[in-house]
Write a structure and sequence with these properties.
The protein is α/β, with parallel strands linked by helices. It is built from six helices and nine strands. It has a domain of about 150 residues: 3-Layer(aba) Sandwich (Rossmann fold). Bound molecules: S-adenosyl-L-homocysteine.
Length: about 220
């Protein structure tokens, strides 16, 4: 697994593109310019790693577009040492960005092949602050709750109640809500019983599905 000057140059260009699209959070731009995104794609698709696009990672899933990663991470207001739950590990790229920002990451994937592959990759990359789980993320991770932040990287028809209940008071949940097209939603738990919801731009994610898939 190599990260060369050429890759670093491509990342610089990607950062310029993201700035042009309105990304202003310097910490997030630094994370994106540091994490070698090409290592999260199969070798044959390396060339595509630094284009601002989502890309297939197998099993009908995609690695999120860098712009989307920056957008969701910004809404999450990540601070060092925070305990963050991510639903939809996929390639592990978003989890790596959160870890770079100093979070303690718990990431959940429902597809066994992706889970196995990404667990190994994160281990090889030395990202030890990321804990991976093969589970149905719609149920959250009750054994490890509560979480300061929760990030869902798949499209939800409705906000799963389990996720709301696993947020700390003052905690933030970022989740794309809708069917074909989703609105990015940010939920803040303002008291044990009250939540505020804000809606942002439109996105298109692969669907959040219930149950485990051990075959794929
Ligand atoms: N965050 C990922 C992008 C993931 S794509 C990255 O950075 O690459 C969405 C992922 O969510 C897919 O891998 C899909 O299998 C997973 N997913 C869908 N429903 C899920 C559920 N209920 N629990 C856990 N993972 C789920």
């Amino acid at each position: 697994m190599k990260d060369t000057y050429r890759h670093k140059g491509l990342r610089k260009k990607l950062i310029t593109t993201l700035r042009e699209k309105g990304v202003v959070n310097e910490q997030i731009l630094e994370a994106i310019s540091t994490i070698p995104r090409h290592l999260f794609l199969e070798k044959a698709f390396e060339e595509w790693a630094y284009v601002d696009k989502a890309f297939p990672i197998g099993n009908q899933q995609t690695i999120s577009q860098p712009y989307t990663v920056a957008y969701q991470t910004h809404l999450l207001e990540v601070k060092k040492r925070e305990k963050i739950l991510e639903i939809g590990t996929g390639s592990g790229y978003q989890a790596a960005i959160l870890a770079y920002l100093g979070a303690r990451v718990y990431t959940v994937e429902r597809q066994k092949t992706l889970y196995d592959r990404t667990k190994e990759l994160l281990y090889d990359l030395g990202l030890k602050s990321i804990r991976t789980f093969l589970k149905d993320g719609m149920l959250g991770l009750p054994d490890h709750a509560p979480f300061d932040k929760i990030l869902v990287t798949a499209a939800a028809r409705h906000i799963p109640k389990a996720l709301l209940s696993q947020l700390t008071v003052g905690g933030i949940l970022v989740i794309p809500v809708g069917e074909e097209i989703q609105k990015m939603c940010k939920v803040i738990r303002i008291s044990p019983t009250k939540y505020s919801r804000m809606y942002y731009d439109d996105f298109q994610f692969v669907p959040l599905l219930s149950g485990l898939n051990k075959k794929e």
